[in-house]
From TrEMBL:
This is Xaa-Pro dipeptidyl-peptidase C-terminal domain-containing protein. Transmembrane segments: none annotated. InterPro entries: AB_hydrolase_fold, CocE/Ser_esterase, Galactose-bd-like_sf, Xaa-Pro-like_dom, Xaa-Pro_dipept_C, Xaa-Pro_dipeptidyl-ppase/CocE. NCBIfam families: CocE_NonD (TIGR00976). Residues 291-552 form the Xaa-Pro dipeptidyl-peptidase C-terminal domain. The lineage of its organism: Bacteria, Bacillati, Actinomycetota, Actinomycetes, Pseudonocardiales. It comes from Prauserella sediminis. It comes from the Bacteria. Pfam families: Peptidase_S15, PepX_C.
Length: 677
């Protein structure tokens, strides 16, 4: 990424200031704005997240907030209540208090002498979520939002549940926030009261995982903050962005389809990162795109930003399977609207282990079903639900996964085949248990047999008709159901095959059902539906190319201890114990500008023995430490989730240390009934 050292406006920075909200709590902010805004006010753009503005996101913030300020905006980074240096306690995601605070902050910004009264909100992940949610509340000053890697549906399309199945990332994410909410404010900013503020957080934040586990179906807990419940409530323009390796690309399609406001969608090859930092590449000049967006909607400039296609996506070329890619080959394609008239759902009937195409007669039919009972090992090469590209976390070669799955292949393709959107599987099935799940994977199979997963979907079969009112299955009864896979843009080249794989478990990406399930698929009455898009040779010619990525100079830090990233699968052939171990260690670094040393290390372990569903276990451990001079603090958190056929069993502990002495020790233990999961 090119570092820009000369910008149109000279930038002044206020590294810390307080914003009072309506209940008297003060939130900690950081501000970059044009020096000229003292006399010529500018719009303000807010990023409102819980990740410690002074150190947690300081390096990333240094790239884009000064850049926006240098192009004529007041760029504001505010820590949520109870995070970073802000007062109060953070007790959950996207709570009513958070959204009220955001409205208060926007009103405060709009009233400042350096602001012209117009505001925008932007953010990735959490900040993308609350940007959409606040927009739906229609604060007076809010003129537009940018939401990156977020969702409009907190139940069906977030880190917690997918298709009614409990995601392994639910435990992973809960543990990340368990560690984040246990960190103290900086004594350099809040003074001697830092310890009391820290204790309030440690004792008051709670165990979020328990809340999420007690809401296993779509209820009011998840409907809150899900703007899909009333997309018409949103009245300002929206730029929605994600990547194919991210967990939130489906939301871009839905927002383009259901919002009634001016909107643009962008999906690249990226993981859970801003597109100017995009990985896998190619990264793009996303900050330039932001400036164009804000110039149009907050300054009223006629820059043709809305004259371009509503949806722009990276059509991915075929690649060999790998857990990481530096770049994904492909090309940009555009659609003037979504759903697109260019995309045709193509119905491909299934037969015994075959997918029939238009020129495939398929041979004789048979009423017999195909029986499947997948081992727990199916899913160990699935990667993460949401990729961060560190450590390498994309799905690996699917051939081992296919060994425990029902597999259906097309004949070898005689011409390229492109899809854009969500593939769907319509199946007739029966099961031998009242609770079951189904995972469906679509793969690109090369001439040498290597299988690259293109997309996948999950369905808790008790949720076949409703996420709000699941119903147990009747063993032996035939059911017709539909399973949608994640949306994608993908080219299958000549000489390859398209493969559909079905499995009854997908651990540890998703928690398995209470007991092993034998599922029967009746292929002669089942169909794969592909969203086929004709190859348009003019795509690259007609689309405006993106600029190369650029940003303000990145904040420098000093590495004191190297980090470590590991993703390791192991299996003991004596006792059949298996484990996936993930290590995410950022090392130790010193922020020279504030003389602060920061260390973070996270470890995740997902274990099981043979095909014994009662042995499934997830464990996460985090250690976070801060040091300056004679001040040293550390928090250690640990979360363990296991299950019986009837219950989930949750244990957690938190230990906090000040200058080597343990000052807080907390423990949680809960047994939570399984609710059709």
């Amino acid at each position: 990424m090119h570092e820009v050292t000369s910008l149109p406006h000279t930038v002044t920075e206020e590294k810390h200031f307080w914003i009072p909200v309506s209940d008297g709590t003060r939130l900690a902010g950081r501000l970059w704005r044009p020096l000229s805004s003292n006399d010529d006010p500018v719009p303000a753009i807010l990023e409102f997240i819980p990740y410690r503005k002074r150190d947690g996101t300081a390096k990333r913030d240094s790239i884009h907030h000064p850049y926006l300020a240098g192009h004529g905006y007041a760029a504001v980074r505010v820590d949520l209540r109870g995070s970073g240096d802000s007062e109060g306690v953070l007790t959950g995601e996207y709570l009513e208090q958070e959204l009220v605070d955001a409205e208060d902050v926007l009103a405060w910004l709009a009233a400042q002498p350096w602001c012209d009264g117009n505001t925008g909100m932007m953010g990735i992940s959490w900040g993308g979520f609350n940007a959409l949610q606040v927009a739906a509340r229609r604060p007076e000053s809010l003129g537009a939002v940018v939401t990156v890697c977020s969702t409009d549906d907190r139940y069906a399309d977030d880190v917690h549940y997918m298709g009614g199945c409990l995601l392994g990332d639910n435990l992973s994410w809960a543990s990340t926030m368990f560690a984040q909410t246990s960190t103290p404010p900086d004594p350099e900013l809040v003074g001697d009261r830092w310890f009391d503020m820290w204790q309030q957080r440690l004792h008051g934040s709670g165990l979020w995982l328990e809340d999420w586990m007690r809401h296993q179906r779509r209820d009011e807990f998840w409907r809150h903050g899900s703007i899909c419940e009333d997309p018409g409530s949103l009245r300002c323009p929206v730029l929605a962005v994600s990547g194919w390796a991210d967990g939130y690309s489906n939301a871009v399609f839905r927002l383009m389809e259901h919002l009634e406001v001016p909107r643009k969608g962008l999906i690249g090859p990226w993981s859970h990162k801003y597109p100017h930092l995009g990985d896998p590449g190619p990264a793009i000049g996303f900050l330039q795109e932001l400036v164009r967006w804000w110039d149009h909607w907050l300054k009223g400039e006629d820059n043709a930003v809305m004259d371009e296609p509503m949806l722009r996506v990276w059509m991915q070329d075929s690649v060999p399977p790998s857990t990481a890619y530096e770049e994904r080959p492909g090309r940009w394609v555009g659609e003037p609207s979504w759903p697109s008239t260019h995309v045709r759902p193509q119905r491909l009937p299934l037969r015994r282990h075959r997918i029939l195409t238009d020129d495939d007669s398929g041979g004789p039919t048979s009423p017999d079903g195909l029986v499947l009972q997948s081992p727990l090992s199916v899913g160990q090469f699935a990667g993460k639900w949401c990729s961060y590209s560190a450590p390498p976390d994309l799905p690996y070669d699917q051939r081992e996964e296919d060994g425990g799955s029902l597999v259906f292949d097309t004949e070898t393709l005689t011409e390229p085949w492109e899809i854009l959107g969500a593939a769907e599987v319509e199946l007739e099935i029966s099961v031998d248990r009242p609770v079951a799940m189904l995972a469906a994977r679509l793969s690109d199979v090369a001439e040498d047999g290597r299988a690259t997963r293109v997309t996948y979907g999950l369905l808790n079969l008790t949720h076949r008709d409703s996420h709000a009112r699941p119903e147990k299955l009747e063993p032996g009864k035939r059911y017709r159901l539909s399973l949608a896979l994640n949306g994608v843009a993908q080219t299958f080249p000549t000489g390859h095959r398209i493969r559909l794989s079905l499995s009854t478990s997908y651990w540890p990406l998703a928690w398995p059902p209470p007991k092993p399930v034998q599922l029967t698929v009746y292929p002669d009455t089942s169909t794969l539906i592909l969203p086929t898009r004709p190859v348009e040779e003019s795509d690259e010619v007609t689309l405006r190319p993106f600029d190369p990525p650029e940003g303000a100079p990145r904040l420098g830090t000093t590495a004191l201890r190297p980090g470590e990233h590991r993703w390791q699968v192991s299996r003991d052939l004596v006792d059949y114990a298996s484990q996936l171990e993930v290590v995410k260690d950022s090392g130790t670094e010193r922020f020279e500008d504030i003389d602060l040393e920061v260390s973070q290390r996270g470890e995740e372990r997902y274990r099981w023995v043979g095909d014994d569903f009662t042995t499934v276990r997830g464990e996460t451990v985090w250690r976070v430490a801060f040091a300056r001079g004679g001040w040293h603090v550390r928090t250690d958190t640990r979360t363990i989730l296991t299950s019986t056929p009837e219950h989930f069993v949750l244990h957690a502990q938190l230990d906090a240390y000040h200058n080597g002495e343990r000052v807080t020790s907390l423990n949680w233990s809960s047994t939570i009934p399984r609710d059709h999961v």
